[in-house]
Write a sequence for this structure.
C-alpha cells in the first residue's frame, strides 16, 4: 500500500502552507526519516520527513504554491508495488507509467486541494480582503468558512482577536482588540514623498507579524523602566577563566561562553529568586510560572525572532551557551520549530555588541519583563573608598509590565540580577 | 417675408407695363427681395463650395452632403415664409438653413466644430440648425424630420400661433414608413404643414425609378387626401409659387400640401461617393443646361431687373461674406473638453 | 404635503396626475392610440376625453413611429405631450424617434432646444399576452443618454413622478408594470412631485440589500417579511429610476449590509442588474462586499403564453427568498 505524503499542519491556526523546497524528485528512492521537503510558514521553515521507505510518486505540491493543510502532496510506493500513474493530471510529475494495472491503490490523490489553492490565489470576499489589508492579516493563513472555502469577513475578524503570534502563547496574550489608526492607513504616508523618490517593498509575513505584535504590545502593556549599572570586571574575568578551561575535543573547545550567555543565566537566576516577577498577566488571573524560560532576541534577515532557552535557571552556563548557538544558527536559517520560539516567561535583548550603551525594550507578551542589555564599557567610577577608578560597566534596563510587576518588585529583581553579575561565582553554585 | 411680399405687390417690378404675364415672383416681390433671393442662392452655392474646399484642406471632419444645384428649391420654398414659420431639414440641409435666414459665419463655425457654431460644435453639417430663424434642424435620419414637422404643426394649431411648418425631405424618404405616417396624420388633423420633397433623382445611389412604385412622389399625396404639386425645382419662381399656394392653404387651416421639386445634385451623395450610378453626361447636362442660378440670373436680366454688372456685384459681395465667414470660423475657439456632457439634459443630471 | 390621502389604484393615480397636469397647463396634451372614448388599452386615460375634449386627448392613428415623432415635434415647439404606448413592446416601432430624435435633439443643436416629452409604456408580463405584449424593455432606453427612464412602483410614486416628468424639460420615459395598475395605495390629493433621480429605501435591514425595480419591489418586500421571521433582515431599495441611477443610495446600502441582490423583470443578461452590479463593483462599496453579487432577472427567453411558464420566466418571491438565504447563510 502506497503511503500518502501530506502537507502537515506545523503551526497553530495554519490553514495552508507553501512548500519552499523539495529535496527529492519524482521517482527518487527515499528512506523513512529523510527530509522530503521544507514548508514555509509565517515565521519559520519546517522540514518534513518521509513517512516511509519507497519510491516518490505523484509529486504535486508545487513549490511556492498555497496548499491546504492535509492535502496529499505526493505518494511513496513500496519497492515493487504496482504504480499506475497519477489519477489526476500532474504534468510535471508524470512519467511513462509502467503498466496500466487494473487496481490503482491511490485514487485519493485525485481529490487533492480546495479550489483556488493550487494556483496560489486565496479565495476571499472583497470585504475580507479589505479587513485583512487594513489590519495586517495574512489571508493565506486563514481558513475560509464561506462557500467553497472562501474567506469571509468573519474569518478575518476572528483572526484579529485570536491571531497567532510568533513568540507568544495566544491564549494568554492580551486581546488584540483595537488596531490604532496609524497602522490602518499606511498609504497616507506616501503623499509626503515625491513620486520616484522611493520604491515600495511589500511586507513579508514576518514583518507584518512583528508590526502587529509590537503595536499590540506597546499599546496594551503599560511599560515601566528600571535602569541599573553593573560592574562587569569580575564576570569578564570568570568568563575568561572558564573559556580557557573548556575541554577540547577534536581540536574544538566544548564551549565558548559569551557575556550574553552569562546574562541569560544571571537573569534566569534572578527571576527564580523573585518568583513574583516570573509571571504572565491575563485579564482573568496572574499566571505564576514554575520555570524560567528566557526568550532571547535574535536578529534574522528581515526581522527578528525570539527562541526560548527553557528552564534556564536550571541549566549550566555551558549548556545555555551551546543551546543558544544552535538556536541562533537555526533562527538565522529560518529553521526553528514553533515550540522553540513560542511562549517563554521573560526575555533578554542585547544590543551591546553594537556599542549601544543603554536602551529600553518592548515587552513580548505573555512575558512580564524584558531585560535590555547595553555594551560593557570602561567608565570612570567612584569605588568603595571614594576614589575615582576605571571599571568595566554595563547598563541594563528592565522593562516590566506594570500590571503584573510593580516598581519595587522590579527594583528587587534588577537588584538581584546585578548581584549575580557582579558576583558571578554565585551563578556557579 | 409673406406679409412683406403681399405689401410689395403694389410696386412689384416691371418695366414693360404688362406685369400679369410675368412669372409669379416677378409679380409678387420687390426688386430688393428678388436680388436678396439671388444673394441667398449664391450664398448657398458658395457656402457649399467653401465648405467643400475647407473639407478637402482638412479643416472639417466627418462628411457632408452638398446640395449644389438645388438652390432654387431651398430658396423658392422659403421665399413665402416668415421668420417665425418653421422648417425641418435633412442631411442635405445647408441650403435650407441659409434660405431660412442663417448666417454663414456661424454655419462655418459649426462645420469647423467651434463654440460659435450654431450647435456649439456638437452637431456639425448633418445637424445644422438656426432655431432663431425657425429651423428645427437638419436630420441624419432619412425621414426623421417628417413626424417632427407634423408635431410642430400640431403645436402651431393647438396654440394658434399662426405658424406654418415646412418639412423638407428627399426622394429617399418617401419610402420610409415615417413619411406615410406623418402625411396621414397631418391630413387627418388638417395641420399647417407643407411637405416638400426635393427629388434629386437618387436616394444615395438608387434612382427613384428603381426604388419608388409611382412615377412622381407627388402622386402619393392622393393617398392622404392632400394636393400633390410637381414643379421644376430649378426654376425659382415655379418653386416659390407652389410654396406660396401651399403656405397660404396651410394658414387658412385647410391642411397640408405635398410639393415635389424635381431637381438634381451636382455632387455625390456625400464626400465618399464615387458617382458610379450616373453618367458624366447626365451631370453635365444638368450643370450646363438647367442650372438654377444661371436660369434665375438670365430671367433677372431678361425682365430688366438687374444688369450683368449688378449681378456680378452680388456674387462679389457673397464672395467677401464667405471669406469673412471662414475667417470667423477659423478664429473661433474650440469647445472645452470639460463641456462634453453639456446639454445632454436641460438641467445637469449627475450619474 | 398635508393634503388628504386616500387609497387609489396605480392607474387612477396616473389618471389623476394627468388631469392635474392638464388643468395646470394648457400646453399639456395626451396622445396615443385609443386613449379617447375607448379610455386607453388599460383604461388609464379613462374618461379624460370627456373633461378635456378631443383636442387635448388625441387618438392617434396606429402609427407608433409617426405618433412618437409628432410628440417629439410638438414638445420641441411648445406643447407638453404625454404620449401613451398601448404596450411597451411597441416602443420597437418608435425607436427611431425616441432614440435618434427625442434623446439627442437638445445635444445635437448645442442646447438650442429642449424636448419636454413624457412617454408612458405599459410593461411587463403576467397577463397572458405572450411574447409581443409582455416585455420589460426599460434597459433599452436606459442605455440612451438624453432620456430619463423611470419605473414607479406605487400609486404614490407614479402620480408624483408623472407630475415631475411633465414639469421636466427633458424626455422622460415611464415604464408602468401592467400588474401594478390595479394595485391600491395611499395617494395624496392635489399636486405633488417625487424626484426622478432618487431611489427609495422601502425597508431597512442589515443583512442583505435587495435592489428591485417596479413590481419586483413588492415581491422583494414580501420576501423581506418572510426573511425577517427567519432572522434575516433584508433592506429593500426601490430603484425607481434607471436613468439616472441613484448610485449613492445603493452604495450606502451595500456598505451597510455587505451583500447585494438585484431583482428585475427584464431579461437578466445586459439588464438593469448588470448595471447595478457593475456600479457596486466600481464603487467604494466593492470593498464591503462579503459575498458575490446575485442577479435575479427574467429568463433568456421570450415571455411564454402558458401561465405556469410565464411565471417561471420572471423572478418570483421564492427565488428572492432562496437567494437571500443562500447569501446570508453563506451557501453561495
Amino acid at each position: 500500500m502506497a503511503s500518502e505524503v501530506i502537507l502537515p499542519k506545523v503551526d497553530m491556526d495554519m490553514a495552508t502552507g507553501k512548500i519552499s523546497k523539495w529535496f527529492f524528485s519524482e521517482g527518487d528512492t527515499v528512506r523513512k526519516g529523510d527530509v522530503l521537503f521544507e514548508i514555509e510558514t509565517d515565521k519559520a521553515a519546517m522540514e518534513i520527513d518521509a513517512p516511509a521507505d519507497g519510491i516518490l510518486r505523484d509529486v504535486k505540491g508545487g513549490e511556492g504554491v498555497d496548499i491546504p493543510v492535509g492535502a496529499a502532496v505526493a505518494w511513496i510506493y513500496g519497492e515493487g508495488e504496482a504504480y499506475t500513474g497519477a489519477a489526476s493530471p500532474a504534468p510535471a510529475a508524470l512519467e511513462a507509467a509502467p503498466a496500466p494495472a487494473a487496481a490503482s491503490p491511490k485514487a485519493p490523490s485525485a481529490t487533492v486541494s480546495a479550489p483556488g489553492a493550487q494556483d496560489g490565489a486565496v479565495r476571499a470576499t472583497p470585504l475580507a480582503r479589505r479587513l485583512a489589508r487594513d489590519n495586517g492579516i495574512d489571508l493565506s493563513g486563514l481558513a475560509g468558512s464561506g462557500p467553497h472555502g472562501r474567506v469571509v469577513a468573519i474569518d478575518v475578524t476572528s483572526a484579529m482577536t485570536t491571531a497567532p503570534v510568533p513568540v507568544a502563547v495566544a491564549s494568554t496574550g492580551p486581546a488584540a482588540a483595537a488596531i490604532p489608526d496609524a497602522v490602518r492607513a499606511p498609504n497616507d504616508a506616501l503623499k509626503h514623498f515625491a513620486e520616484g523618490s522611493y520604491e515600495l517593498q511589500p511586507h513579508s509575513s514576518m514583518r507584518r507579524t512583528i508590526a502587529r505584535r509590537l503595536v499590540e504590545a506597546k499599546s496594551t502593556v503599560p511599560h515601566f523602566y528600571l535602569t541599573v549599572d553593573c560592574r562587569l570586571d569580575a564576570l569578564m574575568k570568570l568568563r575568561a577563566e572558564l573559556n580557557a578551561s573548556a575541554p577540547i575535543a577534536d581540536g574544538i573547545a566544548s564551549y565558548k561562553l559569551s557575556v550574553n550567555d552569562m546574562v541569560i543565566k544571571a537573569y534566569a537566576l534572578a527571576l527564580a529568586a523573585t518568583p513574583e516577577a516570573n509571571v504572565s498577566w491575563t485579564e482573568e488571573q496572574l499566571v505564576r510560572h514554575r520555570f524560567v524560560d528566557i526568550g532571547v532576541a535574535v536578529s534574522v534577515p528581515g526581522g527578528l525572532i525570539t527562541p526560548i532557552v527553557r528552564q534556564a535557571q536550571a541549566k549550566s552556563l555551558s549548556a545555555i551557551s551551546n543551546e543558544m548557538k544552535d538556536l541562533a544558527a537555526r533562527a538565522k536559517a529560518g529553521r526553528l520549530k514553533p515550540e522553540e520560539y513560542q511562549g517563554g516567561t521573560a526575555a533578554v535583548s542585547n544590543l551591546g555588541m553594537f556599542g549601544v550603551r543603554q536602551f529600553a525594550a518592548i515587552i513580548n507578551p505573555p512575558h512580564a519583563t524584558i531585560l535590555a542589555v547595553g555594551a560593557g564599557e570602561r567608565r570612570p567610577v567612584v569605588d568603595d573608598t571614594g576614589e575615582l577608578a576605571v571599571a568595566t560597566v554595563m547598563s541594563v534596563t528592565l522593562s516590566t509590565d506594570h500590571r503584573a510587576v510593580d516598581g519595587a518588585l522590579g527594583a528587587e529583581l534588577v537588584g538581584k540580577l546585578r548581584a549575580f553579575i557582579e558576583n558571578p561565582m554565585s551563578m556557579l553554585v | 417675408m409673406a406679409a412683406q411680399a403681399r405689401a410689395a405687390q403694389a410696386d412689384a417690378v416691371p418695366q414693360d407695363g404688362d406685369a400679369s404675364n410675368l412669372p409669379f415672383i416677378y409679380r409678387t416681390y420687390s426688386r430688393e427681395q428678388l436680388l436678396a433671393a439671388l444673394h441667398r442662392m449664391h450664398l448657398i452655392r458658395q457656402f457649399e463650395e467653401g465648405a467643400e474646399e475647407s473639407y478637402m484642406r482638412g479643416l472639417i471632419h466627418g462628411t457632408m452632403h452638398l446640395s449644389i444645384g438645388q438652390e432654387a428649391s431651398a430658396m423658392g420654398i422659403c421665399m413665402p415664409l416668415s421668420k417665425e414659420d418653421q422648417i425641418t431639414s435633412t442631411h442635405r440641409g445647408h441650403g435650407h438653413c441659409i434660405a431660412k435666414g442663417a448666417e454663414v459665419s456661424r454655419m462655418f463655425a459649426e462645420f469647423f466644430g467651434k463654440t460659435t457654431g450654431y450647435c456649439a460644435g456638437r452637431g456639425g453639417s448633418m445637424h445644422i440648425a438656426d432655431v432663431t430663424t425657425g429651423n428645427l434642424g437638419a436630420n441624419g435620419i432619412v425621414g426623421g424630420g417628417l413626424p417632427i414637422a407634423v408635431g410642430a404643426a400640431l403645436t402651431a394649431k393647438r396654440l394658434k400661433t399662426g405658424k406654418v411648418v415646412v418639412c423638407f425631405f428627399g426622394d429617399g424618404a418617401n419610402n420610409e414608413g415615417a413619411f406615410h405616417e406623418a402625411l396621414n396624420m397631418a391630413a387627418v388633423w388638417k395641420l399647417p404643414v407643407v411637405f416638400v420633397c426635393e427629388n434629386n433623382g437618387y436616394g444615395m445611389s438608387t434612382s427613384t425609378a428603381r426604388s419608388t412604385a409611382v412615377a412622381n412622389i407627388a402622386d402619393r399625396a392622393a393617398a392622404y387626401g392632400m394636393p400633390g404639386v410637381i414643379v421644376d425645382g430649378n426654376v425659382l419662381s415655379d418653386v416659390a409659387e407652389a410654396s406660396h399656394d401651399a403656405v397660404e392653404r396651410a394658414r387658412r387651416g385647410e391642411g397640408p400640401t405635398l410639393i415635389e421639386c424635381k431637381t438634381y445634385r451636382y455632387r455625390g451623395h456625400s464626400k465618399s461617393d464615387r458617382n458610379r450610378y450616373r453618367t458624366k453626361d447626365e451631370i453635365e447636362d444638368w450643370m450646363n443646361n438647367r442650372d438654377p442660378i444661371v436660369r434665375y440670373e438670365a430671367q433677372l436680366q431678361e425682365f430688366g431687373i438687374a444688369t450683368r454688372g449688378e449681378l456680378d456685384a452680388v456674387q462679389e459681395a457673397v464672395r467677401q461674406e464667405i471669406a469673412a465667414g471662414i475667417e470667423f470660423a477659423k478664429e473661433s475657439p474650440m469647445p472645452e473638453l470639460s463641456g462634453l456632457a453639456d446639454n445632454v439634459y436641460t438641467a445637469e443630471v449627475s450619474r | 404635503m398635508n393634503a388628504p390621502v386616500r387609497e387609489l389604484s396605480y392607474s387612477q393615480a396616473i389618471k389623476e396626475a394627468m388631469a392635474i397636469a392638464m388643468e395646470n397647463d394648457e400646453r399639456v396634451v395626451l396622445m396615443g392610440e385609443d386613449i379617447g372614448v375607448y379610455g386607453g388599452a388599460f383604461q388609464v386615460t379613462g374618461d379624460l376625453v370627456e373633461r378635456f375634449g378631443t383636442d387635448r386627448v388625441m387618438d392617434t392613428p396606429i402609427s407608433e413611429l409617426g405618433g412618437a415623432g409628432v410628440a417629439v415635434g410638438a414638445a420641441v415647439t411648445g406643447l407638453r405631450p404625454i404620449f401613451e404606448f398601448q404596450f411597451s413592446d411597441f416602443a420597437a416601432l418608435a425607436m427611431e424617434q425616441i432614440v435618434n430624435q427625442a434623446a439627442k435633439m437638445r445635444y445635437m443643436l448645442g442646447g438650442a432646444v429642449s424636448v419636454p416629452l413624457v412617454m408612458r409604456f405599459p410593461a411587463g408580463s403576467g397577463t397572458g399576452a405572450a411574447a409581443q405584449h409582455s416585455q420589460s424593455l426599460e434597459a433599452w432606453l436606459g442605455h440612451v443618454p438624453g432620456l430619463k427612464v423611470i419605473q414607479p412602483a406605487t400609486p404614490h410614486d407614479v402620480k408624483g413622478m408623472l407630475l415631475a416628468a411633465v414639469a421636466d424639460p427633458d424626455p422622460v420615459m415611464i415604464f408602468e408594470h401592467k400588474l401594478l395598475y390595479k394595485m391600491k395605495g395611499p395617494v395624496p390629493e392635489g399636486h405633488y412631485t417625487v424626484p426622478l433621480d432618487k431611489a427609495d429605501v422601502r425597508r431597512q435591514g442589515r443583512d442583505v440589500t435587495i435592489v428591485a425595480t417596479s413590481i419586483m419591489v413588492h415581491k422583494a418586500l414580501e420576501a423581506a417579511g418572510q426573511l425577517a421571521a427567519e432572522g434575516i433582515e433584508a433592506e429593500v431599495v426601490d430603484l425607481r429610476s434607471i436613468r439616472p441611477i441613484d448610485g449613492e443610495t445603493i452604495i450606502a446600502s451595500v456598505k451597510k449590509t455587505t451583500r447585494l441582490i438585484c431583482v428585475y423583470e427584464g431579461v437578466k443578461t445586459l439588464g438593469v442588474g448588470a448595471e447595478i452590479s457593475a456600479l457596486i463593483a466600481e464603487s467604494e462599496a466593492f470593498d464591503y462586499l462579503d459575498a458575490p453579487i446575485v442577479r435575479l432577472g427574467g429568463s433568456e427567453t421570450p415571455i411564454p403564453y402558458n401561465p405556469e411558464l410565464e411565471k417561471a420566466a420572471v423572478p418570483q418571491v421564492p427565488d428572492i427568498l432562496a437567494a437571500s438565504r443562500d447569501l446570508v447563510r453563506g451557501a453561495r
